[in-house]
Design a protein that fits this description.
Distance between the termini: 21 Å
Largest sheet: 7 strands, mixed
Number of domains: 2
Oligomer: single chain
Helix content: 25-40%
CATH architecture of the largest domain: Alpha-Beta Complex
CATH topology of the largest domain: Quinone Oxidoreductase, Chain A, domain 1
Shape: globular
CATH class of the largest domain: Alpha Beta
Strand content: 25-35%
């Protein structure tokens, strides 16, 4: 292993109790844990979990100093297993990468071979990270809606947090499949983007923030993809039609869910949680090959994202923590 080789990484440090700083620092390969595969990272992306890690959330990352970054695409430099060889283009997302294992906001990562996927031939390293965990999570949620038997003619499908990295991908993919997409967002200045992504209807976030205390509300959609959690998820469940399905992947509003059992026992609504980080490899390969690069494939990814450098990343982290980020953020290393 090239133990003395130096590289740049975004490092988060705890300067004092509860006080964290971020800076670009020079690291050595020898600073990385000894694992099966050493990868030169070409691209990463910004996810809400990355921002939590980068701000000192110890529910995500236990120990600091630390380099976040749960998504990586790049090229194998060294490998001690038969499945991967130097020069292979690969993807590594989720598992413990960027949480307690040094992540992809460094130019090199050292990871377990079971976390790594060969880059599919029909996508570039760059585009794979525009999709990244955001697109991957959206694809899992939509596949659950399909598995539930919901068809485009069955009614509207809601996406909450629709301008976020996961939400905008869900809007675009559902629209491609022919669904009538209702997008919920608090960013009225981004409504044109949502229409371009395929939203047929756009509603403000206040419409999914019921304060009445009622156990059920008027049925408005047959399915929903919720990225927000909290009272938004509660309102969504209460407004879902009989036999519908709601998928949830986020808790940016709250980790608490205050809802009666009425949506479940009176309307037979199904709630499905999406835990993308722990998706087993066979299922990952299916999501990439069968969904992201086939049934759900988006022809234009650039308008859904912006590209930043490692040096520009800290500002983008602040934006996502303030709820001001739009679309996907691609990080070029």
């Amino acid at each position: 292993m090239q133990t003395d080789k130096k590289f740049n990484a975004l490092v988060v440090e705890e300067k004092s109790e509860g006080v964290f700083t971020r800076s670009i620092q020079e690291r050595k390969i020898s600073d990385l844990p000894k694992n099966d595969i050493l990868i030169k990272v070409h691209y990463s992306s910004l996810n809400y979990k990355d921002a939590l890690s980068a701000s000192g959330n110890k529910g995500v990352t236990r120990n600091y100093p630390h380099t976040p970054g749960i998504d990586a695409s790049g090229v194998v430099v060294e490998s001690n297993c038969d499945k991967f060889s130097p020069g292979d283009e690969v993807i590594c997302m989720g598992y413990d990468l960027g949480m307690n294992t040094p992540g992809a906001y460094g130019e090199y990562i050292s990871v377990n071979k079971d976390w790594v996927l060969h880059l599919p031939k029909t996508i570039s390293l760059r585009d794979s990270m525009i999709l990244g965990t955001g697109g991957f999570t959206a694809a899992i949620g939509i596949s659950e809606i399909l598995k539930h038997g919901i068809k485009p003619d069955d009614g509207k499908v809601l996406v909450t947090g629709a301008t976020g990295g996961v939400g905008i991908m869900a809007v675009a993919m559902l629209s491609k499949l022919g669904y009538q997409v209702t997008a919920s967002s608090g960013k009225s200045e981004q409504y044109d983007l949502l229409r371009k992504a395929g939203a047929c209807e756009i509603i403000g976030r206040e419409e999914v923030d019921d304060q009445s205390g009622r156990g059920l509300l008027k049925s408005r959609w047959i399915a929903a993809f919720d990225t927000v959690g909290g009272n938004t998820l509660s309102t969504v469940l209460k407004s879902t039609s009989y036999g519908g399905i709601v998928t949830n992947c986020g808790n940016v509003s709250s980790i608490m869910l205050n809802v009666t059992i009425f949506p479940f026992i009176l309307r037979s609504v199904r709630l499905v949680g999406i835990a993308a980080a722990e998706t087993p490899m066979p299922e990952r390969e299916k999501i990439w090959h069968e969904f992201l690069l086939d049934k759900f494939k988006l022809q234009d990814l650039d308008y859904l994202s912006k590209e930043v450098s490692l040096e520009e990343l800290s500002e983008e982290i602040d934006l996502i923590l303030k709820g001001k980020q739009v679309g996907r953020v691609l990080v070029k290393l």
